[in-house]
Amino acid sequence: MIEPLTRLPDGTIKQVNPITGTKVWTLPGRGARPLGQLSRHPLPIDPDDHDRHCAFCWARMRETTPEIARIVHDGDGWHETRGLLAEDLDHSTAQFRLIPNLFEILSYDYWHLAHGWEPTAESRARRTAYLSTPAGREHVTALARIRMRARGTAGFDAEPLAEDDLEREAVGLFAGNHQVVIARRHYVDDATDDSQLAGSGTLTPEEHRRYTEFTIRAMRDLYRDNECARYVSVFQNWLAPAGASFDHLHKQVVAIDELGAQKEREVERLRTEPDMFARWGAEYAASQGLVVARTEHAVAFAGVGHRYPALVVHVTDGEGCPWELTEEQVRDFSDLVHACHAATGVHVPSNEEWHHRPPGIDVPMPLRAVVKWRISTLAGFEGGTKIYVNTIDPWSVRDRAVTRLRELAAQGAVSDRLTIC
Questions:
Q1: Is pTM beyond 0.85 here?
Q2: What order do you get walking across the sheet with 5-7 strand by strand?
Q3: Which tens digit of pLDDT belongs to each residue from 344-367?
Q4: Origin, by domain of life (predicted)?
Q5: How far apart are CA 249 and CA 95, in angstroms?
């Protein structure tokens, strides 16, 4: 196997991802660039826009699809509420909401026509209950018009909307296999200007754990409710350069009907190299001085051979499906992912990608997350050579993250369960 890290005499570092084989070159003199610098002067927040800054804000809940579930934090602690009607949405404050994506990657029609998949009894009951109230019917009708208009479907402007059109669109709105987990805040509490965004790293460790657990349950339910789903992709796009539609914290949970080429290669390799992730993950990172922080059940380190500078988190002692992990394992995973975001900062565009063992796969595959700093633009060189020019080498990523984490730990902003390396 090719050595994953090679330093050349001029300082160039050639990287080969030991899992995927992706080739990356880091050129000298680029690692000291400041990250996350605002390109404009911050603007004051208009008090009249409080919690109405984008369609994901809680004061604009009826611009999003009918809610599947929410996480509430009140005097009784943290709890999940499901099946709210449109009239009930304002009766509690959702710290996190789970909704179907209005424009899903794979639609209900895709699953139904390609696989014969039908909505679950729970989904049908939720649709019937939601449409039974005037506010619910008005909400779904407005969304049906938006979907029809976007597709160029005739009749979207009919008054009233044809019952067949409403029913057709409603099925997809309640039986979607592409869901979104939305956090409450757009800006941090008491923010005064629009630079004070609320990202993963500005949550408390406890809030981030609830966010993580809620996402894991959404994954589990998609697998449970759609027997044709072979993999559920979980990812988070933060800021427009990383693909986000809104500068509002959210994760996407998407069922697909195949594993994908990379996952298939991982499965085949694991059959002959079952310790692949341990060997080329935490162990290799430790041997190269790339570990950022540890908890009892997980480790964070600077990634090798990623298209963008990356921080990686591996669960170190659990190889089942994410919902089969213990509460402590999930907490340790969440604390480290939170710490990676906190060290990155809210002004750095990033993608957070989860990787896991899906049901039906019988090889050891730990829950992993990759936080990629989207600080460069892929261009013709990368497209023509499939060699990616990365602006910051893994050791510089590690040093930046550790320095910032020590500052955050002194402020009590990250979990005290972390051992920073």
A1: yes
A2: 5-7, 13-16, 23-26, 387-390
A3: 999 999 999 999 999 989 999 999
A4: Bacteria
A5: 11
